Every structure is written in C-alpha cells, then in structure tokens.
Amino acid sequence: MATIDLSDLAALLPARGPLLGLDLGSKTIGVAISDINRQIASPLQGLPRAKTFGKTVAPLIALIEKERPAALVIGLPLNMDGSEGPSAQSARAFARNIGALNPLPIVLWDERLSTAAVTRTLLEADASRRRRAEVVDKMAAAYILQGALDRLRILTRS
Q1: Which of 116, 45, 103 lies closest to 72, judged by CA?
Q2: Which of 26, 86, 88, 103 has the highest CB neighbour number within 10 Å of its CB?
Q3: How far apart are CA 151 and CA 93, in angstroms?
Q4: How crowded is residue 96: how many other Cβ atoms within 10 Å of its Cβ?
C-alpha cells in the first residue's frame, strides 16, 4: 500500500489493534509496538540492516505476520528546516518497497530529534555507551510511534 497521511489513517483503522513503529537506523531498524488500544508505544526489538533490502526486510515481514499490526509508522528523518535530504529519501524508498510486500497502511512520521531525545534520556539514566548502542534504535522507534499515537488520538477526537 502507498504511504498515507496520519489523518487519513484514522479512518482506515479498526477500533482496536496495535501499530508498529520503525526507526530506520543505518545499522539497525528499531521496532516498537503499541498496545491494542493505541495508547502507549513500547520498544520491541532491533533488527539488523543487511546489505540487501530482501535480507533486511525478511525478519521484519515475519514480525509483521506475528504481531499483526493495523498499520506501520515509519520515522521520516527531515532536516531541521523541514526539507528532505538523502536519509528522508531513503526512508521514503523503504516505505515504498515494504508497501509493495504487504497490504498494511504506512504513515511516514517526522522523527526530527528522536534519537537525540532518546540518547539524552539514556545519558540521564547513566546508561553505558554499550547499553545505549543496544537500545537507542528501538527506543527511538517507540518515541516516533508515541508521537504518532498522540496525534492520532487528537485527530480521532475532532
């Protein structure tokens, strides 16, 4: 399915069912999932990026089949001025390619400063460099997904 706007997603969603959030890191894809009522996003896991899209996406497709989300929310790394650079173009290409492999609606969600916010939180919690490296992508995915969930709640009340 093609990517859609979050406001359009609200009309397509069933009353209940989780959403899956993705943070497309250069080495790892962070994955987060919401509860079935779509209130809280939780870090789920990190999936390693492989050299080819097929090898990268195979475990993600298996995870989608296991978790059965109602939609995907993929972080869109915009520049601070809102423009799109190579990373945003890569995220759009990833969304198009994963959309060709599954029927789920896909939303691209602005992820500016998500990794910085998560890293700051981990530093404040005195997490070691190694621990931060292990969890930052899946926590960033949860941060991205929570932002989309919060906005979705506002849209559905309107």
Answers
A1: 103
A2: 88
A3: 24
A4: 12
The predicted-structure confidence for 54-111, as pLDDT tens digits, reads as follows: 999 999 999 999 999 999 999 999 888 888 899 999 999 999 999 999 999 999 998 8
Q: Nearest CA to 129 among 143, 142, 119, 115? A: 119
Coil/strand/helix, residue 101: coil
Least confident segment among 7-11, 34-38, 135-139, 147-151: 135-139
Q: Which residues of 57-76 are buried (b: 16+ CB within 10 A; e: fewer)?
A: beebeebbeeeebbbbbbbb
Residue 83: DSSP 8-state: -
Domain that holds residue 113: 3-157
Q: What gap in Å lies between CA 157 and CA 106, rounded to an integer?
A: 21
pLDDT digits (tens, 9 = 90+) for 100-126: 999 999 999 988 766 666 666 666 666
pLDDT at 114: 66
The CB density around residue 128, as the number of other CB atoms within 10 Å, is: 9
- CATH number (domain holding residue 52): 3.30.420.140
Provide the 3-class DSSP secondary structure of residue 17.
coil
Number of domains in the chain: 1
Q: What residues have CB less than 8 Å from 115, skipping those under 6 apart?
A: 23, 136, 140
Backbone angles phi, psi at 4, to 5 degrees: -130, 165
